[in-house]
Design goal:
The complex is a heterodimer of chains A (177) and B (376). By secondary structure, chain A is of the alpha+beta class. Chain A has one domain: Jelly Rolls. Chain A has helices spanning 5-26, 35-44, 100-103, 125-134, 136-169; strands at 46-50, 55-57, 62-63, 65-71, 74-79, 85-91, 96-97, 106-107, 111-114, 118-124. In chain A, strand 5 (74-79) and strand 6 (85-91) form a beta hairpin. In chain A, helix 4 (125-134) packs across helix 5. The radius of gyration of chain A is 19 Å and the shape is globular. The relative contact order of chain A is 0.16. By secondary structure, chain B is mainly α. Among the domains of chain B are: 7-38; 198-266 and 282-366, no CATH class. In chain B, 87% of the residues lie in helices and 0% in strands. Chain B has 10 helices and no strands. Chain B has helices at residues 2-44, 48-69, 75-97, 102-134, 143-195, 200-240, 247-257, 264-280, 284-310, 319-375. In chain B, helix 8 runs antiparallel to helix 9. The chains are: A alpha+beta (177), B mainly alpha (376). The interface between A and B is medium-sized, with 31 and 25 residues. Chain A: This is Cyclic nucleotide-binding domain-containing protein.
Protein backbone atom coordinates (compact mmCIF):
# COMPACT_ATOMS: atom_id res chain seq x y z
CA UNK A 1 0.00 0.00 0.00
CA UNK A 2 2.47 2.57 1.24
CA UNK A 3 5.22 3.14 -1.28
CA UNK A 4 8.76 3.10 -0.07
CA UNK A 5 9.36 6.46 1.67
CA UNK A 6 12.81 6.66 0.13
CA UNK A 7 11.49 6.67 -3.41
CA UNK A 8 8.59 8.81 -2.40
CA UNK A 9 11.00 11.45 -1.16
CA UNK A 10 12.98 11.40 -4.35
CA UNK A 11 9.92 11.72 -6.51
CA UNK A 12 8.41 14.39 -4.32
CA UNK A 13 11.57 16.44 -4.60
CA UNK A 14 11.50 16.03 -8.33
CA UNK A 15 7.89 17.21 -8.39
CA UNK A 16 8.82 20.17 -6.16
CA UNK A 17 11.49 21.16 -8.56
CA UNK A 18 9.16 21.00 -11.48
CA UNK A 19 6.62 23.25 -9.85
CA UNK A 20 9.01 25.69 -8.20
CA UNK A 21 9.52 27.76 -11.32
CA UNK A 22 5.78 27.74 -11.88
CA UNK A 23 5.16 28.92 -8.34
CA UNK A 24 7.75 31.68 -8.71
CA UNK A 25 6.10 32.88 -11.89
CA UNK A 26 2.84 33.29 -9.92
CA UNK A 27 4.47 35.63 -7.40
CA UNK A 28 3.68 39.19 -8.58
CA UNK A 29 7.28 40.27 -8.00
CA UNK A 30 8.56 37.77 -10.52
CA UNK A 31 5.64 37.79 -12.93
CA UNK A 32 7.62 39.51 -15.67
CA UNK A 33 10.52 37.06 -15.67
CA UNK A 34 11.09 34.75 -18.61
CA UNK A 35 11.28 31.01 -18.18
CA UNK A 36 15.08 31.09 -18.26
CA UNK A 37 15.26 33.80 -15.65
CA UNK A 38 12.89 31.82 -13.45
CA UNK A 39 15.20 28.83 -13.77
CA UNK A 40 18.04 31.08 -12.68
CA UNK A 41 16.01 32.41 -9.75
CA UNK A 42 15.31 28.84 -8.74
CA UNK A 43 19.02 28.35 -8.23
CA UNK A 44 19.39 31.42 -6.02
CA UNK A 45 16.53 30.88 -3.59
CA UNK A 46 16.81 28.60 -0.58
CA UNK A 47 13.85 26.48 0.40
CA UNK A 48 13.37 26.42 4.15
CA UNK A 49 10.75 24.36 5.93
CA UNK A 50 9.33 25.52 9.23
CA UNK A 51 7.20 23.63 11.70
CA UNK A 52 4.04 25.06 13.19
CA UNK A 53 4.83 27.77 15.77
CA UNK A 54 8.49 27.87 14.78
CA UNK A 55 10.07 31.31 14.84
CA UNK A 56 11.38 32.46 11.46
CA UNK A 57 13.12 35.48 12.94
CA UNK A 58 12.55 37.74 15.90
CA UNK A 59 12.69 41.51 16.10
CA UNK A 60 16.25 42.71 16.48
CA UNK A 61 17.82 39.76 14.71
CA UNK A 62 20.26 40.77 12.05
CA UNK A 63 18.43 40.24 8.79
CA UNK A 64 19.97 39.19 5.54
CA UNK A 65 17.08 38.59 3.22
CA UNK A 66 13.42 38.15 2.47
CA UNK A 67 11.09 35.17 2.48
CA UNK A 68 8.31 34.27 0.09
CA UNK A 69 5.62 31.95 1.42
CA UNK A 70 5.15 28.90 -0.71
CA UNK A 71 2.77 27.06 1.56
CA UNK A 72 1.53 27.54 5.08
CA UNK A 73 0.84 30.68 7.02
CA UNK A 74 3.09 33.23 8.69
CA UNK A 75 2.28 35.67 11.43
CA UNK A 76 4.13 38.98 11.65
CA UNK A 77 4.12 40.52 15.08
CA UNK A 78 5.83 43.21 17.08
CA UNK A 79 6.32 43.46 20.81
CA UNK A 80 4.78 46.41 22.65
CA UNK A 81 6.15 48.24 25.69
CA UNK A 82 4.66 45.71 28.08
CA UNK A 83 6.40 42.87 26.31
CA UNK A 84 3.20 41.57 24.78
CA UNK A 85 3.01 40.43 21.18
CA UNK A 86 0.92 42.55 18.87
CA UNK A 87 -0.07 40.87 15.64
CA UNK A 88 0.70 42.97 12.60
CA UNK A 89 -0.37 40.72 9.77
CA UNK A 90 -1.14 37.17 8.75
CA UNK A 91 0.51 36.26 5.48
CA UNK A 92 -0.64 33.58 3.07
CA UNK A 93 1.09 31.69 0.23
CA UNK A 94 2.42 34.09 -2.40
CA UNK A 95 3.05 36.87 0.13
CA UNK A 96 6.53 37.96 1.03
CA UNK A 97 8.10 39.60 4.06
CA UNK A 98 11.46 40.76 5.39
CA UNK A 99 12.34 42.56 2.16
CA UNK A 100 13.79 45.56 4.07
CA UNK A 101 16.75 43.47 5.17
CA UNK A 102 17.57 42.52 1.60
CA UNK A 103 19.15 45.87 0.81
CA UNK A 104 21.33 46.34 3.87
CA UNK A 105 22.40 44.71 7.10
CA UNK A 106 19.60 45.85 9.34
CA UNK A 107 17.89 44.49 12.41
CA UNK A 108 14.50 42.97 11.79
CA UNK A 109 11.81 45.44 12.81
CA UNK A 110 9.25 42.76 13.65
CA UNK A 111 9.16 39.08 14.43
CA UNK A 112 7.81 36.38 12.14
CA UNK A 113 6.47 33.01 13.12
CA UNK A 114 5.06 30.16 11.11
CA UNK A 115 1.57 29.48 12.44
CA UNK A 116 1.23 26.23 10.49
CA UNK A 117 3.86 24.00 8.99
CA UNK A 118 5.15 26.16 6.16
CA UNK A 119 7.57 26.07 3.31
CA UNK A 120 9.28 29.37 2.62
CA UNK A 121 11.63 30.47 -0.11
CA UNK A 122 14.42 32.66 1.14
CA UNK A 123 16.10 35.18 -1.12
CA UNK A 124 19.23 36.47 0.60
CA UNK A 125 21.52 39.39 0.10
CA UNK A 126 24.74 37.42 -0.22
CA UNK A 127 23.28 35.27 -2.99
CA UNK A 128 21.95 38.31 -4.84
CA UNK A 129 25.31 40.07 -4.56
CA UNK A 130 27.09 37.04 -5.92
CA UNK A 131 24.53 36.64 -8.70
CA UNK A 132 25.01 40.25 -9.80
CA UNK A 133 28.64 39.41 -10.49
CA UNK A 134 27.95 36.23 -12.41
CA UNK A 135 24.66 36.93 -14.16
CA UNK A 136 24.02 40.67 -14.07
CA UNK A 137 21.10 40.78 -16.51
CA UNK A 138 18.67 38.33 -14.88
CA UNK A 139 19.59 39.56 -11.42
CA UNK A 140 18.84 43.12 -12.48
CA UNK A 141 15.44 41.97 -13.67
CA UNK A 142 14.74 40.18 -10.39
CA UNK A 143 15.74 43.26 -8.42
CA UNK A 144 13.65 45.40 -10.75
CA UNK A 145 10.60 43.28 -10.03
CA UNK A 146 11.22 43.61 -6.31
CA UNK A 147 11.64 47.34 -6.77
CA UNK A 148 8.32 47.57 -8.62
CA UNK A 149 6.44 45.88 -5.82
CA UNK A 150 8.16 48.00 -3.19
CA UNK A 151 7.40 51.17 -5.15
CA UNK A 152 3.74 50.13 -5.33
CA UNK A 153 3.70 49.67 -1.60
CA UNK A 154 5.35 53.03 -1.02
CA UNK A 155 2.82 54.66 -3.29
CA UNK A 156 -0.05 53.04 -1.42
CA UNK A 157 1.51 54.07 1.84
CA UNK A 158 1.85 57.72 0.85
CA UNK A 159 -1.72 57.70 -0.43
CA UNK A 160 -2.92 56.38 2.89
CA UNK A 161 -0.83 58.99 4.66
CA UNK A 162 -2.45 61.71 2.57
CA UNK A 163 -5.80 60.22 3.41
CA UNK A 164 -4.98 60.31 7.10
CA UNK A 165 -3.72 63.88 6.90
CA UNK A 166 -6.86 64.95 5.10
CA UNK A 167 -8.86 63.15 7.76
CA UNK A 168 -6.96 64.93 10.52
CA UNK A 169 -7.60 68.42 9.11
CA UNK A 170 -11.27 67.86 8.25
CA UNK A 171 -12.51 65.07 10.46
CA UNK A 172 -16.15 65.59 9.40
CA UNK A 173 -15.94 64.46 5.81
CA UNK A 174 -13.59 61.52 5.15
CA UNK A 175 -11.87 61.83 1.83
CA UNK A 176 -12.67 58.99 -0.52
CA UNK A 177 -11.28 58.26 -3.91
CA UNK B 1 19.40 -27.01 46.47
CA UNK B 2 20.26 -28.53 43.15
CA UNK B 3 17.73 -26.16 41.67
CA UNK B 4 19.48 -23.13 43.12
CA UNK B 5 22.94 -24.34 42.05
CA UNK B 6 21.60 -25.01 38.52
CA UNK B 7 20.18 -21.51 38.53
CA UNK B 8 23.46 -20.19 39.69
CA UNK B 9 25.26 -22.17 37.04
CA UNK B 10 22.99 -20.70 34.38
CA UNK B 11 23.60 -17.28 35.83
CA UNK B 12 27.33 -17.79 35.73
CA UNK B 13 27.07 -19.03 32.16
CA UNK B 14 25.07 -15.98 31.15
CA UNK B 15 27.47 -13.70 33.00
CA UNK B 16 30.38 -15.39 31.32
CA UNK B 17 28.79 -15.08 27.90
CA UNK B 18 27.86 -11.45 28.40
CA UNK B 19 31.28 -10.53 29.68
CA UNK B 20 33.13 -12.33 26.89
CA UNK B 21 30.93 -10.83 24.21
CA UNK B 22 31.36 -7.42 25.77
CA UNK B 23 35.12 -7.75 25.89
CA UNK B 24 35.31 -9.29 22.44
CA UNK B 25 33.11 -6.68 20.87
CA UNK B 26 35.04 -3.99 22.68
CA UNK B 27 38.29 -5.29 21.28
CA UNK B 28 36.71 -5.72 17.87
CA UNK B 29 35.33 -2.18 17.85
CA UNK B 30 38.62 -0.78 19.11
CA UNK B 31 40.72 -2.68 16.59
CA UNK B 32 38.34 -1.99 13.73
CA UNK B 33 38.28 1.66 14.71
CA UNK B 34 42.06 1.85 14.72
CA UNK B 35 42.31 -0.09 11.48
CA UNK B 36 39.59 2.12 10.11
CA UNK B 37 41.46 5.31 10.96
CA UNK B 38 44.70 3.84 9.70
CA UNK B 39 42.93 2.75 6.53
CA UNK B 40 41.54 6.23 6.20
CA UNK B 41 45.00 7.64 6.74
CA UNK B 42 46.64 5.48 4.11
CA UNK B 43 43.77 6.10 1.73
CA UNK B 44 44.02 9.86 2.02
CA UNK B 45 47.80 10.10 2.39
CA UNK B 46 48.60 11.02 -1.18
CA UNK B 47 45.54 13.18 -1.65
CA UNK B 48 46.52 16.12 0.49
CA UNK B 49 48.79 17.80 -2.04
CA UNK B 50 46.61 17.31 -5.16
CA UNK B 51 43.50 18.53 -3.36
CA UNK B 52 45.34 21.53 -1.99
CA UNK B 53 46.77 22.42 -5.39
CA UNK B 54 43.40 21.84 -7.05
CA UNK B 55 41.75 24.20 -4.55
CA UNK B 56 44.37 26.85 -5.26
CA UNK B 57 43.95 26.40 -9.01
CA UNK B 58 40.17 26.60 -8.62
CA UNK B 59 40.47 29.80 -6.61
CA UNK B 60 42.79 31.28 -9.24
CA UNK B 61 40.61 30.36 -12.21
CA UNK B 62 37.29 31.29 -10.59
CA UNK B 63 37.34 34.97 -11.72
CA UNK B 64 38.18 33.97 -15.31
CA UNK B 65 35.37 31.41 -15.39
CA UNK B 66 32.93 33.95 -13.98
CA UNK B 67 34.05 36.44 -16.60
CA UNK B 68 33.18 34.05 -19.42
CA UNK B 69 30.02 32.91 -17.65
CA UNK B 70 28.90 36.55 -17.53
CA UNK B 71 28.49 36.52 -21.28
CA UNK B 72 25.79 33.90 -21.02
CA UNK B 73 28.00 30.86 -21.49
CA UNK B 74 27.19 27.75 -19.48
CA UNK B 75 29.57 27.29 -16.56
CA UNK B 76 30.84 23.84 -17.54
CA UNK B 77 31.53 25.12 -21.03
CA UNK B 78 33.27 28.19 -19.61
CA UNK B 79 35.59 25.96 -17.59
CA UNK B 80 36.39 23.96 -20.71
CA UNK B 81 37.22 27.15 -22.58
CA UNK B 82 39.59 28.23 -19.81
CA UNK B 83 41.27 24.82 -19.76
CA UNK B 84 41.64 24.88 -23.52
CA UNK B 85 43.14 28.37 -23.49
CA UNK B 86 45.51 27.39 -20.72
CA UNK B 87 46.79 24.24 -22.38
CA UNK B 88 47.12 26.12 -25.68
CA UNK B 89 49.22 28.77 -23.95
CA UNK B 90 51.46 26.14 -22.36
CA UNK B 91 51.92 24.28 -25.64
CA UNK B 92 52.65 27.52 -27.48
CA UNK B 93 55.22 28.45 -24.85
CA UNK B 94 56.86 25.03 -25.13
CA UNK B 95 56.93 25.32 -28.93
CA UNK B 96 58.38 28.82 -28.82
CA UNK B 97 61.18 28.41 -26.28
CA UNK B 98 61.41 24.64 -26.26
CA UNK B 99 60.97 22.42 -23.24
CA UNK B 100 63.23 23.43 -20.36
CA UNK B 101 66.26 21.22 -19.92
CA UNK B 102 65.14 19.83 -16.54
CA UNK B 103 67.25 16.72 -16.77
CA UNK B 104 70.46 18.57 -17.46
CA UNK B 105 69.66 21.06 -14.76
CA UNK B 106 69.03 18.30 -12.23
CA UNK B 107 72.27 16.53 -13.17
CA UNK B 108 74.26 19.73 -12.84
CA UNK B 109 72.57 20.55 -9.57
CA UNK B 110 73.36 17.09 -8.24
CA UNK B 111 77.01 17.68 -8.97
CA UNK B 112 77.01 21.24 -7.70
CA UNK B 113 75.07 20.93 -4.46
CA UNK B 114 77.94 19.23 -2.56
CA UNK B 115 80.31 21.93 -3.77
CA UNK B 116 78.03 24.71 -2.55
CA UNK B 117 77.42 23.03 0.76
CA UNK B 118 81.07 22.28 1.40
CA UNK B 119 81.77 25.94 0.74
CA UNK B 120 79.10 26.91 3.20
CA UNK B 121 80.61 24.51 5.75
CA UNK B 122 84.06 26.01 5.33
CA UNK B 123 82.63 29.50 5.61
CA UNK B 124 80.61 28.67 8.70
CA UNK B 125 83.52 26.88 10.37
CA UNK B 126 85.56 30.02 9.83
CA UNK B 127 82.81 32.03 11.45
CA UNK B 128 82.64 29.55 14.30
CA UNK B 129 86.36 29.78 14.94
CA UNK B 130 86.06 33.52 15.02
CA UNK B 131 83.19 33.22 17.47
CA UNK B 132 85.12 30.75 19.60
CA UNK B 133 87.94 33.23 19.93
CA UNK B 134 85.53 35.75 21.41
CA UNK B 135 83.21 33.42 23.28
CA UNK B 136 85.24 30.42 24.46
CA UNK B 137 82.24 28.69 26.08
CA UNK B 138 80.80 27.56 22.73
CA UNK B 139 84.01 25.70 21.96
CA UNK B 140 82.52 22.21 21.72
CA UNK B 141 79.59 23.10 19.55
CA UNK B 142 80.45 21.56 16.21
CA UNK B 143 78.34 23.29 13.61
CA UNK B 144 80.33 21.92 10.71
CA UNK B 145 79.48 18.31 11.52
CA UNK B 146 75.79 19.08 11.80
CA UNK B 147 75.81 20.80 8.46
CA UNK B 148 77.80 18.00 6.82
CA UNK B 149 75.35 15.38 8.03
CA UNK B 150 72.46 17.50 6.87
CA UNK B 151 74.01 17.99 3.42
CA UNK B 152 74.60 14.25 3.03
CA UNK B 153 70.99 13.59 3.92
CA UNK B 154 69.86 16.24 1.46
CA UNK B 155 71.90 14.79 -1.40
CA UNK B 156 70.66 11.31 -0.61
CA UNK B 157 67.11 12.59 -0.57
CA UNK B 158 67.57 14.28 -3.95
CA UNK B 159 69.02 11.10 -5.47
CA UNK B 160 66.21 8.92 -4.12
CA UNK B 161 63.37 11.33 -4.55
CA UNK B 162 63.95 12.44 -8.13
CA UNK B 163 62.39 9.45 -9.93
CA UNK B 164 59.66 9.16 -7.32
CA UNK B 165 58.82 12.85 -7.50
CA UNK B 166 58.69 12.60 -11.28
CA UNK B 167 55.98 9.94 -10.88
CA UNK B 168 54.20 12.14 -8.36
CA UNK B 169 54.34 15.13 -10.67
CA UNK B 170 52.87 12.97 -13.42
CA UNK B 171 49.95 11.96 -11.22
CA UNK B 172 49.53 15.57 -10.11
CA UNK B 173 49.28 16.65 -13.74
CA UNK B 174 46.26 14.40 -14.10
CA UNK B 175 44.65 14.77 -10.69
CA UNK B 176 44.91 18.52 -10.20
CA UNK B 177 43.06 19.57 -13.37
CA UNK B 178 40.43 16.91 -12.71
CA UNK B 179 39.82 17.98 -9.11
CA UNK B 180 39.88 21.66 -9.90
CA UNK B 181 37.38 21.11 -12.71
CA UNK B 182 34.89 19.66 -10.26
CA UNK B 183 35.68 22.25 -7.62
CA UNK B 184 35.07 25.01 -10.16
CA UNK B 185 31.87 23.50 -11.46
CA UNK B 186 30.22 22.20 -8.31
CA UNK B 187 31.67 24.14 -5.37
CA UNK B 188 28.60 26.37 -5.21
CA UNK B 189 26.24 23.42 -5.21
CA UNK B 190 28.28 21.55 -2.60
CA UNK B 191 28.44 24.56 -0.30
CA UNK B 192 24.72 25.30 -0.74
CA UNK B 193 23.96 21.71 0.17
CA UNK B 194 26.11 21.94 3.29
CA UNK B 195 24.69 25.30 4.35
CA UNK B 196 21.12 24.13 3.86
CA UNK B 197 21.73 21.58 6.64
CA UNK B 198 21.96 24.32 9.28
CA UNK B 199 18.90 24.74 11.50
CA UNK B 200 16.45 27.49 10.55
CA UNK B 201 17.37 29.65 13.51
CA UNK B 202 20.99 30.02 12.44
CA UNK B 203 20.55 29.73 8.71
CA UNK B 204 20.77 33.43 7.85
CA UNK B 205 23.76 33.92 10.10
CA UNK B 206 25.63 30.98 8.64
CA UNK B 207 24.84 32.08 5.10
CA UNK B 208 26.09 35.60 5.80
CA UNK B 209 29.25 34.45 7.54
CA UNK B 210 29.94 31.99 4.75
CA UNK B 211 29.63 34.76 2.16
CA UNK B 212 32.08 36.96 4.08
CA UNK B 213 34.55 34.18 4.74
CA UNK B 214 34.57 32.91 1.18
CA UNK B 215 35.09 36.45 -0.14
CA UNK B 216 38.02 37.01 2.19
CA UNK B 217 39.47 33.58 1.52
CA UNK B 218 39.38 33.85 -2.24
CA UNK B 219 41.01 37.27 -2.07
CA UNK B 220 43.63 36.04 0.35
CA UNK B 221 44.57 32.96 -1.67
CA UNK B 222 44.55 34.84 -4.97
CA UNK B 223 46.60 37.63 -3.45
CA UNK B 224 49.20 35.30 -1.98
CA UNK B 225 49.63 33.26 -5.15
CA UNK B 226 49.87 36.32 -7.40
CA UNK B 227 52.37 37.83 -4.96
CA UNK B 228 54.51 34.68 -5.08
CA UNK B 229 54.40 34.58 -8.88
CA UNK B 230 55.40 38.23 -9.23
CA UNK B 231 58.23 37.90 -6.70
CA UNK B 232 59.46 34.82 -8.54
CA UNK B 233 59.41 36.70 -11.86
CA UNK B 234 61.20 39.71 -10.39
CA UNK B 235 63.91 37.51 -8.90
CA UNK B 236 64.24 35.60 -12.16
CA UNK B 237 64.68 38.75 -14.23
CA UNK B 238 67.06 40.21 -11.67
CA UNK B 239 69.20 37.06 -11.52
CA UNK B 240 69.11 36.50 -15.28
CA UNK B 241 70.94 39.81 -15.70
CA UNK B 242 73.95 38.29 -13.92
CA UNK B 243 76.04 35.22 -14.75
CA UNK B 244 74.53 33.19 -11.93
CA UNK B 245 73.43 29.66 -12.75
CA UNK B 246 70.08 28.09 -11.89
CA UNK B 247 68.26 31.43 -12.05
CA UNK B 248 64.87 29.74 -12.83
CA UNK B 249 65.17 27.30 -9.92
CA UNK B 250 66.26 30.05 -7.54
CA UNK B 251 63.33 32.16 -8.69
CA UNK B 252 60.90 29.31 -8.02
CA UNK B 253 62.42 28.84 -4.56
CA UNK B 254 62.14 32.57 -3.85
CA UNK B 255 58.51 32.65 -5.00
CA UNK B 256 57.42 29.62 -2.98
CA UNK B 257 59.23 30.60 0.22
CA UNK B 258 57.65 34.05 -0.12
CA UNK B 259 54.36 32.41 0.92
CA UNK B 260 55.75 32.30 4.45
CA UNK B 261 55.92 35.79 5.93
CA UNK B 262 58.92 37.13 7.85
CA UNK B 263 61.03 33.95 7.77
CA UNK B 264 60.31 32.72 4.24
CA UNK B 265 62.17 35.36 2.20
CA UNK B 266 65.33 34.86 4.28
CA UNK B 267 65.39 31.14 3.55
CA UNK B 268 64.43 31.86 -0.04
CA UNK B 269 67.53 33.98 -0.61
CA UNK B 270 70.03 31.71 1.18
CA UNK B 271 70.62 29.29 -1.75
CA UNK B 272 70.93 32.16 -4.21
CA UNK B 273 73.43 34.00 -2.09
CA UNK B 274 75.46 30.84 -1.44
CA UNK B 275 75.66 30.05 -5.15
CA UNK B 276 76.60 33.65 -5.91
CA UNK B 277 79.36 33.57 -3.29
CA UNK B 278 80.77 30.27 -4.58
CA UNK B 279 80.54 30.91 -8.31
CA UNK B 280 80.94 34.65 -8.60
CA UNK B 281 82.72 35.68 -5.40
CA UNK B 282 82.19 38.98 -3.67
CA UNK B 283 82.02 41.55 -6.43
CA UNK B 284 79.61 43.85 -8.20
CA UNK B 285 77.49 40.91 -9.37
CA UNK B 286 77.17 39.58 -5.82
CA UNK B 287 76.05 42.95 -4.53
CA UNK B 288 73.58 43.22 -7.38
CA UNK B 289 72.13 39.79 -6.49
CA UNK B 290 71.85 40.81 -2.85
CA UNK B 291 70.19 44.00 -4.00
CA UNK B 292 67.72 42.05 -6.16
CA UNK B 293 66.77 39.75 -3.29
CA UNK B 294 66.49 42.28 -0.50
CA UNK B 295 65.96 45.74 -1.91
CA UNK B 296 64.10 45.14 -5.17
CA UNK B 297 62.11 41.95 -4.54
CA UNK B 298 61.39 42.28 -0.84
CA UNK B 299 61.36 45.96 0.07
CA UNK B 300 60.26 47.72 -3.10
CA UNK B 301 58.11 45.21 -4.96
CA UNK B 302 56.70 43.17 -2.11
CA UNK B 303 56.35 45.55 0.81
CA UNK B 304 55.73 48.78 -1.04
CA UNK B 305 53.67 47.62 -4.04
CA UNK B 306 52.24 44.12 -3.75
CA UNK B 307 51.26 43.78 -0.10
CA UNK B 308 49.31 47.07 0.09
CA UNK B 309 47.45 46.18 -3.10
CA UNK B 310 46.91 42.44 -2.79
CA UNK B 311 46.84 41.47 0.86
CA UNK B 312 44.21 42.89 3.16
CA UNK B 313 45.16 43.77 6.70
CA UNK B 314 42.59 41.27 7.99
CA UNK B 315 44.87 38.37 7.20
CA UNK B 316 47.83 39.75 9.15
CA UNK B 317 49.12 37.25 11.67
CA UNK B 318 51.12 38.02 14.75
CA UNK B 319 54.77 36.91 14.25
CA UNK B 320 54.39 34.53 17.18
CA UNK B 321 51.57 32.72 15.39
CA UNK B 322 53.66 32.64 12.22
CA UNK B 323 56.49 30.84 14.01
CA UNK B 324 54.09 28.44 15.72
CA UNK B 325 52.39 27.71 12.41
CA UNK B 326 55.73 27.00 10.72
CA UNK B 327 56.82 24.62 13.48
CA UNK B 328 53.49 22.81 13.67
CA UNK B 329 53.20 22.60 9.88
CA UNK B 330 56.70 21.19 9.70
CA UNK B 331 55.86 18.54 12.27
CA UNK B 332 52.77 17.50 10.35
CA UNK B 333 53.85 17.61 6.72
CA UNK B 334 57.56 18.36 6.56
CA UNK B 335 58.79 21.10 4.26
CA UNK B 336 55.43 21.32 2.50
CA UNK B 337 53.78 21.83 5.87
CA UNK B 338 56.23 24.60 6.74
CA UNK B 339 55.30 26.45 3.56
CA UNK B 340 51.54 26.06 3.76
CA UNK B 341 51.28 26.18 7.57
CA UNK B 342 51.21 29.96 7.67
CA UNK B 343 48.61 30.43 4.90
CA UNK B 344 46.40 27.85 6.59
CA UNK B 345 46.83 29.61 9.94
CA UNK B 346 45.87 32.86 8.20
CA UNK B 347 42.79 31.20 6.77
CA UNK B 348 41.73 30.02 10.22
CA UNK B 349 42.44 33.52 11.51
CA UNK B 350 40.23 35.05 8.80
CA UNK B 351 37.39 32.68 9.63
CA UNK B 352 37.58 33.47 13.36
CA UNK B 353 37.79 37.22 12.75
CA UNK B 354 34.83 37.22 10.38
CA UNK B 355 32.67 35.27 12.80
CA UNK B 356 33.66 37.52 15.65
CA UNK B 357 32.98 40.65 13.64
CA UNK B 358 29.62 39.33 12.55
CA UNK B 359 28.68 38.56 16.11
CA UNK B 360 29.80 41.97 17.24
CA UNK B 361 27.59 43.75 14.72
CA UNK B 362 24.84 41.34 15.62
CA UNK B 363 25.05 42.23 19.31
CA UNK B 364 25.40 45.93 18.58
CA UNK B 365 22.22 45.99 16.54
CA UNK B 366 20.47 43.89 19.09
CA UNK B 367 21.20 46.35 21.86
CA UNK B 368 20.38 49.32 19.69
CA UNK B 369 17.12 47.82 18.69
CA UNK B 370 15.94 46.72 22.11
CA UNK B 371 16.58 50.17 23.58
CA UNK B 372 14.70 51.73 20.66
CA UNK B 373 11.99 49.14 20.90
CA UNK B 374 11.32 49.92 24.53
CA UNK B 375 11.14 53.62 23.85
CA UNK B 376 8.70 53.21 21.01
Amino acid sequence: MNPNPFWQNIFRNQANKQTLAYFLSQVPMFSKLSRRELKFLEKIVHIRNFEADEMIFSAGDIGSGMYIIRSGQVQIFSIDTNGKEVEQAILEPGDFFGEVALTGTRPRTAGARATTASSLMGLFRSDILEATLRHPAPTAKILFGLNRVLADRLHQCSQQLELLQAGATTPEEPHNE
Amino acid sequence: MSDSTGFRRAQVAVMYLVLTTAIASGIAIYSSATTFTSLLQTATAGLFLPILLALIVAFMLEPLVSLIENRGVHRTFAIFIIYLLFSAAVILLLLLIGPPNWRGMMQALKADVPRYISFAIVYLTGLLELAQQHFPFIAHYNLGDHLRNFSQELIGAILVQTPRSAMRIGSLLILVPLFSFFFLRDSRRIMRGLISLTPNRYFEMVLDIYAHVSWQLSHFIRGRVIEAIIIGLVVWVGLALTDIRYAPILAVVAGITNLVPYVGPIFGMLPGITIALVDLGVGPQFWWILCVYILIAQIIVDNMILIPILISKVSNLHPLWVILAIIMGGKLYGILGMIIGVPIASIINIIILEIRQYRRTFNLYNRYFSSRGKML
